[in-house]
Write a structure and sequence with these properties.
The chain is 47% helix and 8% strand. The chain has 17 helices and six strands. A hairpin with a 5-residue loop joins β4 and β5. The protein is elongated and about 95 Å long.
């Protein structure tokens, strides 16, 4: 007997149905159906992923490893510059010193080689916060950090550098580092970059032999160096994690094998999914008779989806002026529940389109209407595949997206 097995796989259940096929491979009978329910892979009370502790521990190991590598590069730079020998560097940190005092005093006097090395090492080790995305407020944690940084920037107006502020201001008298989710002591990486410039300029002025512009440039490179989240390790490292991992995971189309699958946020995919849903919509009257939508109704529903952000069954009913006795067959109506409540269910097929539309509306109302389907596809691809602002901007530029539109997005 020929049959089809259909699966509906979710995070906490798998539904299945076996459907018999006739000689023409057309379904004619349900053989059996059921579902298997299991525990979701998440914390019951919070909904947090069970993998979160392992992911956080892995992230901590990476940060520690990368910081260690940064400091090793810095020590090699000190040796090449002739600032200190390897033995002197090892002995340097065995003796205690008030580095914040040295950072403040470095603006007005020449620091000796040991003091200068301590200051540079300390700033590179605690190099401040830098968001990986321009729109940091999207992430709640980044938003709290940004608020703290903005407060400290206002405080910094009374001082020359971050180091001087941390040393002299009453706010930092008892503590200078964040603890237990308190972000009050956060500073931005750009603030520390300004301090580096001020310190090198002051040391050159005061005759420090190890404050040349060449040394400053080499130091800044190590200080600011950060691996791109899109590219991962160096391609020459032969690491399996080198290159853009998201692009690597994109499969090919089953109908057009050379073509990559389209992102869900692309206009082409959204329109395909929308039209497929519209063609599958069925209406049932009080007698139980069913019908699909007419060509005019299909066109009206499609236009509504691109125009209305809150696209729902209720919005379709209103747009088509459907009588109350007509019901949507893919909704489960309950006698105890009003029709309006049941039909509040949203159809999210054009959600990404409206996100793009709202961003472009900030530049010019209705701006999205001037973009071609290919341009909208490029926008969907760029924001799906790339997570780094520079990469996104480069992808949008390559696709011919206007610079002002790219900035708005």
């Amino acid at each position: 007997m020929n049959y089809i097995l259909g699966l509906d796989i979710g995070i906490a259940s798998v539904g299945w149905a076996a459907v018999a096929l006739d000689a023409n491979d057309e379904p004619y009978k349900i053989l059996d159906l059921n579902s298997r329910i299991f525990k979701a892979a998440e914390q019951p009370k919070t909904g947090a992923s069970l993998a979160a502790p392992r992911r956080e521990a892995r992230g901590s190991r990476r940060r520690i490893r990368r910081r260690r590598h940064r400091m090793e590069r810095l020590r090699h730079l000190f040796v090449r510059e002739g600032l200190l020998s390897a033995e002197e560097i090892e002995a340097l940190f065995k003796a205690p010193a008030d580095v914040y005092r040295l950072r403040a005093e470095g603006l007005s006097r020449c620091l000796d080689d040991g003091e200068w090395a301590r200051v540079l090492y300390h700033i590179a080790k605690h190099r401040g916060f830098k968001s990986n995305r321009r729109n940091a407020e999207v992430n709640t944690g980044d938003g709290k950090v940004k608020t703290a940084i903005d407060e400290n920037k206002r405080l910094l107006e009374n001082y020359k550098t971050v180091g001087e502020m941390l040393f002299r201001d009453e706010k930092f008298k008892d503590a200078k580092r964040n603890k237990g989710g308190d972000y009050a002591f956060c500073v931005g990486r750009d603030m520390l970059s300004d301090e580096i410039g001020a310190l090198f300029a002051a040391q050159r002025k005061n005759g420090n032999a190890h404050a040349s512009e060449v040394f400053e440039a080499a130091y800044r490179k190590i200080f600011a160096d950060q691996r791109s989240f899109d590219d991962g390790p160096d391609a020459n490292s032969k690491s399996p994690y080198a290159g853009n991992q998201i692009e690597k995971m994109i499969g090919t189309c089953s109908l057009e094998p050379p073509e990559k699958r389209a992102p869900k946020a692309s206009y082409s995919f959204m329109r395909f999914s929308l039209l497929q849903k519209i063609n599958h919509l069925r209406l049932k009257d009080a007698k139980g008779e069913e019908r699909g939508l007419t060509d005019e109704e299909r066109a009206a529903v499609e236009a509504l989806a691109w125009k209305k952000e809150n696209f729902s069954y209720g919005a379709i009913r209103k747009e088509l002026s459907l009588p109350d006795e007509l019901c949507f067959t893919d909704l489960h109506y309950q006698a105890s529940e009003k029709q309006e409540k049941t039909e509040k269910k949203k159809l999210p097929f054009t959600a990404a389109y409206h996100e793009i539309r709202k961003a472009l509306d900030k530049r010019e109302k209705g701006r999205i209407q001037s973009l071609s389907p290919d341009a909208l596809d490029a926008i969907g691809y760029a924001f799906t595949v790339f997570k780094n602002d520079a990469k996104i901007e480069a992808a949008l530029k390559a696709a011919g997206i206007d610079k002002a539109d790219a900035a708005a997005l």
